[in-house]
Amino acid sequence: MKKIPIIPVAIEEAELALFEERKKIYPRTQKGWFQSWRWVLVFFTQVLFYGAAWLNWNDRQAILFDLVNRKFYIFGLVLWPQDFIYLAVLLVISALSLFLFTAIAGRLFCGYACPQTVYTEIFLWIEAKVEGDRGARMKLDEAPMSARKLRLKSIKHSAWIAIALWTGFTFVGYFTPIRTLAHEVIDVSLGPWETFWLLFYAFATYGNAGFMREQVCKYMCPYARFQSAMFDKDTLIVTYDTERGEPRGSRNKKVDYKEQGLGACVDCGICVQVCPTGIDIRNGLQYECIACGACIDGCDQVMDKMGYERGLVRYTTEHALKRKMNSEAMWKRVFRLRTLVYTGILCLIILVAAASLAYRVPLKVDVLRDRAMPKITETGGVENVYRLQIMNTQESPRGYIISVKGLVGAEIVNENSVAIPSASSKAFPVRVRVPAGSASTGSNRIKFTITDKEKANVTVTEKAVFIVPR
């Protein structure tokens, strides 16, 4: 059998072809309706993130996730590990909200509120202010190192690092009281874990927003991969009107382009230059598109200069574009059965969760019977010892009365009241005695009732087992 020779060079060339060198994207700065809304969201999210950590509530930080003491403070609400169900509900609400927004208008979260998008926008703004517009930045990167280039790059990276460190500091400030954290930073007395997370989060912000940018959206974010499962032909997406725009080509503004057999697209490339992920929206919907609307603003500006109608690139649906629907018909299909079901389920979960929080009893009790054998008293009565873990979730000291029922003559022998400091818990031993002959041998059901001394409606009942020896 004749052997076929293998050519190593061909194999090497095939392997090299699988890799694509990253080309740095230099988004062009533009103004417009969508860009204005992006900056509104940037300001809103950053004021919320940086400012909320400094708010006070009842002489403490308003929002604090105290992992050491296992307490989460959210304004007047104190959540404990036993309230884990609310975290699960919050995740469900977040997931359904994402499904709803995606089904209605695609990747709105990615384009306007995602931290990666927000910080990339901030870092790009700093870069433009320091190094200049798109063309100036490209020339600066291509130029050899000089004193001017070193100065501009140093200023830019110093600003980036400052924002990244402040972001890391604020992030840690939600887990360690931020004023205490500030004093520790000033005194250079940060703990090892605080130091690690501050620097880690700062490094992640600096690296993702300053260098990786669109690579995070295109290759690291899982949402980019499964978004298509939530899209359909009635989802609002950023779309190029191919029928109106093609064939594209340059032309004189004063000449009727239709007589030249051209479409409305002047092939200026603005839509590509302003795109933060570097795609060409004229090639159709792509998973890299984050629905920021930058290409819409850029194209509309060109249409205005040429005297053409706006909307060559616009938010619309595939059905509306194909069937030439008007705005009213398009919006009727946008709010279809699928989105209405999502909205209904989301509203129902939010209402149930809100009602649960509003009517939540600010008292939690765990009862554990002591493993020691029951005690027989001199009169023939029987005593069992229990350990009551009483948790006061209110931010004021409370006093509670403990009572027991379920067996005839059952009574608490030791102190039947306990004082619990604000937002804390206390283990309290309780001795329960029943008279001789009032309970059958073996296990007997009893109930402990713990009631607030000042608020009778704040009460918790817990079951327990009373053992009578044979």
Automatic annotation (TrEMBL):
Keyword Transcription: no
Protein name (Swiss-Prot/TrEMBL): Cytochrome c oxidase accessory protein CcoG
Sequence ranges assigned to domain 4Fe-4S ferredoxin-type in this UniProt record: 253-284
Pfam families the UniProt entry points to: Fer4_18 (PF13746), Fer4_5 (PF12801), FixG_C (PF11614)
GO cellular component: plasma membrane
Keywords: 4Fe-4S, Electron transport, Iron, Iron-sulfur, Membrane, Metal-binding, Transmembrane, Transmembrane helix, Transport
Domain of life the protein comes from: Bacteria
Residues passing through the membrane, by range: 37-57, 84-105, 158-175, 195-212, 340-359
Lineage, broadest ranks: Bacteria, Pseudomonadati, Pseudomonadota, Betaproteobacteria, Burkholderiales
Keyword Transmembrane: yes
Gene Ontology MF: a single term: metal ion binding
InterPro entries: 4Fe4S_Fe-S-bd, 4Fe4S_Fe_S_CS, Cyt_c_oxidase_cbb3_FixG, Electron_Trans/Redox, FixG_C, Helical_ferredxn, Ig-like_fold
